[in-house]
Every structure is written in C-alpha cells, then in structure tokens.
Design brief:
With about 130 residues, the protein is an all-alpha fold. It has a single domain, classed as Four Helix Bundle (Hemerythrin (Met), subunit A) (Up-down Bundle). The chain has five helices and no strands. α2 packs across α4. The radius of gyration is 15 Å and the shape is globular.
Length: about 130
Amino acid sequence: MDNYTDEELSEALREVSKTISNCEKMQKKFAEGTAQYSLLRNRIKAMIISKLLIESELSLKDQMKEELGQVTKEELTEALKPVVSIISKCEKAQEKFAEGSPHYRRFENLIKTMEIAKALIENRLTWLE
C-alpha cells in the first residue's frame, strides 16, 4: 500500500468530513426511497468507512481499531463502489475547468482524497482475506 504522510491523511480526513456533511445536507432534499436518496445514503456510508480508515491510519483514536473491526468485508466492498464513482465523476467534471482554477483544484483535492480512501479500503479488504 502507498504510504501517505500525516499531512496528506489529515487533508483527506477534512475532505471526507466535508463530503459527509454535504451529502447529509443534500439527502434531506430527497424523499426516502428515491434513487437520489439511496445514492446519497450509500455515499455517506462509504465516506464514514473511509473516515474510519483514515483516522485509523492517523491513529487518532484507540477506539477506531475496535470500530473498524465491526466493518464487514461486504461493507468494505460496497463502500468501494461510491468511492470509485466519485473519482470518475470528479475526473470528468475537472476536464471542464482550466488547470489551476479554483474549481479544478477543488476536484483535484477530492480526487486525491478518494484515491487515498480507495487504497485504504482495498488494503483493508486484502488484510481481511
């Protein structure tokens, strides 16, 4: 697995936390049972798992290892799908903006965060096998 610096992991943690907050706000706008609501529910769950993995890497809390032990292989596999989807959507959206522009950099940060989350999820899945 890639070794990430504490700075990279801290930035990823901030980005994932913002994404969770944004998704929770958006989810309130949709009726339960709609495709958009389900998409956001799955995305929130994936981001929570990603956050736990990043916090575990940073060793912020002893409790994280215990909570992480409760995340199943199936949940990790399911969490990987929204993370990969976010990467793909951000890469496509990023193409619409000039390199170096604020929007371009925003997508760049989110892509890097999701790449870290993806690597941590895949590493955890490998560890569980």
